[in-house]
Amino acid sequence: MMKKMGNSPRSANFKIALLAGAIILVGALLLYTQSIVEKLQAKEREVADLYARSLEYIASGETGDGDFSFIFDEIIKAIDFPVILTDENREPIYPYTDYVKNIRIDPEVPAERQREFLLNLIHEMDQQRDPIQVTYESNGETIVLNHLHYGESELIRQLRWLPIVEVALAGLFVLIAYTGFSYIKRSEQSNIWVGMAKETAHQIGTPLSSIMGWVELLREYGKDNPQIQETLPELDRDIERLRKIAARFSKIGSKPDLKQTSLNKTIQHVIEYIERRIPQMRKQVSINFETDAEYRANLNTELFEWVIENLIKNALDAIENHTGTITITLKESRSSLNIDISDTGKGIEKRDRKDVFRPGYSTKQRGWGLGLSLSKRIIEDYHHGKLYIKESRVGEGTTFRIKLNKKL
Q1: What's domain 255-405's superfamily in CATH?
Q2: Residue 143 three-state SS
Q3: Residue 343 in contact with residue 325, Cβ under 8 Å?
């Protein structure tokens, strides 16, 4: 049975609920704002219609002279939206400034340009809403005197932008909050990792010192015992291995020293160590190292070896059959040194690729799911490079790539 450690279903459901709540909130805000806009538009329509009916009253009543400016100046002072009055052919009435409201016309501009300006406005207004006809009855016939064209007030235009501004501000707030929360979360995780790593190094160091003492006693008092003498080199190698592990953990959280080191020799050293232990896994996996030159880079050897070791072990675990191949390729590109670790294993599903570097993620029964996450941290935070999945095909294998900047 394979396991995947990570976010629980409850956490995922909570995120979905938050997203759904945000969408509902934004939708409700848009509907409410649209409702207000429609009510204001209806109110403007009533005011414009009242203005048109007033003109009809003057045109058909006892006033006789049809003084339309009186309507503008005295009857409908509350109009706060642009209005243009045209004749029966929808032609602006001259002088234009007397038959428009809330529209600025430069008196210094020639009349023909004023007319073109008004015609363009009329066209825009008529696309938004139909003009109101000013009519009167004569001998049972309806005669069109004028057309009243009107646009949106500044208040409605502002209201139309209001939900967009609110959503943008809310989105910005959420983004800032999410970024801050993610930073705090990463910082807390980092502190936990550092504390765990240093405590692990300390816990290993205590019995290691004791083991080294016992080995020295064996070396001293077992001179005449051939079996002890044959065993001591293996014990020395295991002690050195434990010392290296303790040193790796002790460096987590500290700024490591980077030195110009041979990449070829570093990788080859890890390969030789892993090859000696493959038979213990009851597998026949060959590890091939391919390169076209000798390359050097700024490395912390102990930490970088840890990364290569983790990636090779990950590749070995991915090869579920008893046989397979792991190919490590070291090449140079224009700005970086690229190390590709490819295997002939089971591959990674597309839906899982974004999670492989997440702390706690694992598809194995054993392990804490920290190997790839630590490797990514070592390469990107300490060596200023990149570690990512170059490609993966289910049933065919996976290739991880390490990119190291040549300029460092």
Answers
A1: Histidine kinase-like ATPase, C-terminal domain (3.30.565.10)
A2: strand
A3: yes
Helix crossing, 154-221 with 226-251: angle to 10°?
160
pLDDT, position 324: 92
Beta strands in 107-153 (DSSP E): 132-138, 141-150
Distance of alpha carbon 348 from alpha carbon 346, whole angstroms: 7
Residue 9 has pLDDT above 60, yes or no: no
Q: Are 132 and 52 in contact (CB under 8 A)?
A: yes
Interval 290-346: pLDDT, tens: 999 999 999 988 889 989 999 999 999 889 888 899 999 999 988 899 999 999 999
CA distance 58 to 25: 50
Range 387-394, long-range pairs (CB < 8 A, 24+ positions): 387/307, 387/357, 389/348, 389/353, 389/356, 390/340, 392/347, 392/348, 392/353, 393/347, 394/346, 394/347, 394/348, 394/349
Q: 299: number of CA atoms within 13 Å, CB side?
A: 22
Per-residue pLDDT tens over the stretch 155-184: 777 777 777 777 777 777 777 877 777 777
Task: Break the chain into its structural domains and give their ranges.
Answer: 11-152, 177-248, 255-405
Cβ–Cβ < 8 Å for 189, 359:
yes
Please report how many Cα atoms fall inside a 13 Å half-sphere around the Cα of residue 8, on the Cβ side. Answer: 3
| pLDDT of residue 139 exceeding 80 | no
Residue 408 has pLDDT above 60, yes or no: no
